[in-house]
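Feature request, filed as a ticket because there's no other form

It would be nice if the structure record came with a short human-readable summary line next to the tokens. Right now we just get the raw output. Example of a typical job, pasted below so the devs can see what we mean:
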Amino acid sequence: MKRLVIVLATVLLSGCASIPTSSDLHTLDDVAPTPGSDPVRVIARPPSASMTPDELISGFIAAQASIADDYAIARKYLTTSAARTWHPQSIQLIDGGRTQTTTVGPLFTNVSTQVVGVVDKTSRLSWWNSPRTLTDQFTLVSTDAGLRISSAPNRAYMSPLDFTRSFVAVPMYLLSQDFSALVPDIVWLADGDASSATRLAGLLLKGPAGALKTALASAIPNGTRLSPAAVTVMDRQASVNLDSTALQVTDTQRQAMLAQITWTLTALQGVDSVRITVANQPVSTSQLVYTRTQFDTWVADQKVVSRPLFSVTEGVAVRGTREIKDQLGRLPSAQSLAVTADGSQIAYVSSGRAFLAPVTAL
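Raw output as currently delivered:
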């Protein structure tokens, strides 16, 4: 591993005899972060017996920046029974500097937060054009260890920065309406979570959701479940077993289903192939393990384009490096962008809604 040499400079401060005026030469190992990950992680503070109601609530919210072991530190702020039943169904992305707590009597505390976005129960992310105020009520009780939260809403609170440090975007592959092509739909999963493969497969089995629900399709029959309810990964191979519901497909649907599952699970870091069975039996008599190359015809060819690319920069749609003169205005929350082949029409998805507008000449 590379070595990083650090020289500590001489400190010259008069009247401060306790501060050293020189130091030795030290060598430290260079820390190389894992590709695609942020080496910065939040070390959450557990609760203390002396915390006031406001401090307890603020500490509980701050601790949710650490998702390790299913918010293990945050759960310490809850009573034993509340810790068992608290299951966040969404992640509220908040401006932490604008969070206010109001004590309502000895048992209740109201918390108002400014929400700038949300990750819903389908793991899809939406940003708001302007912050929205969300008010929740927490119930507190006195225990031998100090105040604890006995009732909390089933959602997590996290700053956008902490969210991007703890979660990664993963493409989940659905289908065009005619089953002719795979279409990626982005979901957000906990970075480094051992259950990511199971979570991703479960989302795939539920099919299209959100803004793309009516635009995309899935070849996986409704009601299909994992059996057992987990996807295992070993030696870079994911193993998936579906229940007998997945047998209710035509030959065309079966191939599309295999393509969806293979491309989706191999989007995870550390997965190169997928072993797929239905009711513990091979889906095909000729094959058991699948890789992306077997379904490359389902994905649009990558082509070199000569015309300038369209993008969103600082909330403004641009073509190449020049701002587009269109009817869109600012796009602070645009998540995806599409342009017709002739460049005359531009479409985008923002805050869960799809928009279309003409692009005038530059």
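Something like this underneath would help us a lot:
The CA atoms of residues 219 and 256 lie 6 Å apart.
The longest strand covers residues 125-143.
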